[in-house]
UniProtKB/TrEMBL annotation:
Superkingdom of the source species: Bacteria
Protein name: Cytochrome c
Organism in which the protein naturally occurs: Sphingobium jiangsuense
Residue ranges of every copy of the Cytochrome c domain listed in the record: 7-126
Gene3D superfamilies the UniProt entry points to: Cytochrome c-like domain (1.10.760.10)
Keywords: Electron transport, Heme, Iron, Metal-binding, Transport
GO molecular function: electron transfer activity; heme binding; metal ion binding
PANTHER family with a match to the protein in the record: CYTOCHROME C
Keyword Transport in annotation: yes
């Protein structure tokens, strides 16, 4: 009985410490980059262009589809969206629900707190960082 409750406490403490939320690989990095999943396609560093996806430096407040030379989908280009925090939140929760026909292949982040961390990261103008 005693062993069981101590085990429960230890697991509880691990969850509170955030060990449960890093993709389940069993190791807990000291700091997890909230936009790690985006870096395969996007750059967040000012001026860095990638053919795969538009640059996201300073995206908060910009109209959708505004990177010169990037081949956006018609759906996004013609969406009329301005990337407020609310619109970014909706796009990151479910890109194809907000912009049917978007070329962004990303299933969506169901966790609202993680979406907020991503948006904070973009608004703070941080560049690409490993982890
Ligand atoms: C598989 C590649 C890929 C991944 C992963 C990805 N994106 Fe995208 N993203 C794209 C593409 C391609 C577009 C352009 C979509 C279009 O034209 O419809 C885009 C567009 C966007 C836009 C609109 C940019 C603009 O100029 O209007 C935002 C904001 C965005 N992505 C955020 C993110 C965030 C945040 C993540 C990580 C959670 C992410 N994306 C993950 C490929 C990706």
């Amino acid at each position: 009985m005693k062993t069981t409750s101590i085990t429960t406490l230890v697991f509880g403490a691990m969850i509170l410490a955030g060990c449960g939320g890093n993709g389940g690989n069993g190791t807990a990095p000291a700091r997890t980059n909230p936009v790690a999943a985006c870096l395969t396609c996007h750059s967040f560093t000012k001026g860095v262009k990638r053919p795969t996806a538009p640059n996201l430096h300073d995206i908060v407040g910009k109209p959708a589809g505004s990177e010169p030379g990037f081949r956006y989908s018609d759906a996004l280009k013609n969406s009329g969206i301005v990337w407020t925090r609310e619109k970014l939140d909706a796009y990151l929760a479910d890109p194809r629900a907000l912009v049917p026909g978007t070329r962004m292949i990303y299933a969506g982040e169901p966790d609202a707190a993680r979406r907020q961390a991503m948006i904070d990261y973009m608004q703070n103008g941080e560049g690409d960082q490993a982890q």
